């Protein structure tokens, strides 16, 4: 993993968000203020504008540069949360440019922990945490069982999808949707959907690499 791989993952995440813009905008109009996807796309565009700088870096500093740019461009609740994810991963990654499944699981879990600390939400609050936490747990579990890389890249998108779908029937206790009470039930959380899509796209992209 290096800056080029990080940029390839950003590209994959961007492509799926573009493809699902209208859907995510509609979800956020139902239970939020409608800006989530546009906040995220603004951040992604800013990352593209600094492509050469990200690609020139090693893995951890590439993640960190992307994190800082997201913090200054995304805004909303999700900007600081996505910053925490990438910054938390960068801190845990340090010099690890060649990652084992176990390293990658530990790094991702550190990022998700940082998001949880920032947003103070666990699972069950109808947020992106309903995707991120189960994916981090499943990742650790697969690493402990020494699952091969391909099996991990195949399993995590399915865990992400289950987590995203589970938000549909939840009451929201964090973020704007929490003001809606029962009216939030029956709607998938937009941040859970965007996170799930990005995880799926990044896994598919990484599956194209040999290691
Ligand atoms: P805002 O709510 O400020 O408009 P965004 O539209 O950028 O923020 O993002 C909304 C998404 O952020 C929600 O769909 C939810 O997934 C996520 N979110 C909101 N609050 C939290 C939190 N405390 N912890 C984790 N995720 C959260
Ligand atoms: Mg919003």
Description:
- It comes from Caballeronia zhejiangensis.
- This is Dihydroxyacetone kinase.
- Residues 4-204 form the DhaL domain.
- Helices cover 70% and strands 0% of the residues.
- It has 211 residues and is mainly α.
- It has one domain: DhaL domain (Serine Threonine Protein Phosphatase 5, Tetratricopeptide repeat), CATH 1.25.40.
- Helix 3 (36-49) packs across helix 5 (59-73) and helix 8 packs parallel to helix 10 (190-206).
- The longest helix has 19 residues, at 101-119.
- The site of magnesium ion (MG) has 6 residues, from loops.
Could you give the topology of this structure?
Blueprint: H1 3-19, H2 21-31, H3 36-49, H4 51-55, H5 59-73, H6 78-93, H7 101-119, H8 129-144, H9 149-166, H10 190-206
Helix pairs in contact: 1-3, 1-5, 1-10, 2-10, 3-5, 5-6, 6-7, 7-8, 8-9, 8-10, 9-10
The structure holds adenosine-5'-diphosphate (ADP) and magnesium ion (MG).
Adenosine-5'-diphosphate binds at residues 28, 32-33, 35-36, 39, 76-78, 81, 119-121, 127-129, 174-176, 189-192.
Which key terms come to mind for this protein?
single chain, mainly alpha, 0% strand, globular, binds adenosine-5'-diphosphate, binds magnesium ion
């Amino acid at each position: 993993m290096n800056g080029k791989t990080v940029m390839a993952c950003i590209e994959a995440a961007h492509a799926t968000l573009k493809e699902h813009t209208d859907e995510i905008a509609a979800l956020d109009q139902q239970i939020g203020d409608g800006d989530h996807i546009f906040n995220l796309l603004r951040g992604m565009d800013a990352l593209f504008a600094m492509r050469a700088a990200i690609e020139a870096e090693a893995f951890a500093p590439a993640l960190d540069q992307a994190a800082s740019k997201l913090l200054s461009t995304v805004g909303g609740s999700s900007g600081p949360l996505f910053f925490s994810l990438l910054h938390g991963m960068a801190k845990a990654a340090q010099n690890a440019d060649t990652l084992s499944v176990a390293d990658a699981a530990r790094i991702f879990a550190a990022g998700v922990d940082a998001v949880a600390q920032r947003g103070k939400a666990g699972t069950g609050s109808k947020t992106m945490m309903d995707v991120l936490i189960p994916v981090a747990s499943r990742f650790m579990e697969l690493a402990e069982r020494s699952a091969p890389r391909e099996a991990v890249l195949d399993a995590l998108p399915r865990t992400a999808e289950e987590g995203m779908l589970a938000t549909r029937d939840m009451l929201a206790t964090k973020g704007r949707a929490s003001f809606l009470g029962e009216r939030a039930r029956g709607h998938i959380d937009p941040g859970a959907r965007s996170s799930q899509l990005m995880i799926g796209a990044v896994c598919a992209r990484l599956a194209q690499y040999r290691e």
